[in-house]
Amino acid sequence: MNKNLPIPEIVEKSIRSEELIRVWISDGKPIISITSNMWKDHSNWGIILADIHNYISSIYETLEYERSTVERDIVNVFHAELDVRQRDHRN
Predict the structure, then answer these.
(1) How far is 79 from 73, CA to CA, in rounded Å?
(2) Which of 22, 40, 65, 73 minimizes the number of CB atoms within 10 Å of its CB?
(3) Per-residue model confidence (pLDDT) at position 3
(4) pTM for this prediction
(5) pLDDT tens for each residue of 23-78
(6) Could you give the CA distance from residue 9 to residue 3 in angstroms, rounded to a whole number?
(7) Domains in the chain, please, with CATH?
(8) How far apart are CA 30 and CA 69, in angstroms?
(9) DSSP three-state, residue 31
């Protein structure tokens, strides 16, 4: 069974596409692979995170969840996780 998501057609047709990140859940934990060929301006990752947030919200909206609730919940958990990780990093 192929567990890989399909590559979008626009990416396959483009001559200037680059994969940036892959995420899996393995044994209940996220496993992340990120390219070492990143932007010089690290703040550009904020654009990607916002796009991911938007795509996830759209998917749940099609499943009849309230979009604003999904968006709020994602942001709240995101901030909570950042707080925990920053606190752990300081200790």
Answers:
(1) 10
(2) 40
(3) 81
(4) 0.80
(5) 999 999 999 999 887 788 989 999 999 999 999 999 999 999 999 999 999 999 99
(6) 18
(7) 10-90 (3.30.2370.10)
(8) 23
(9) strand
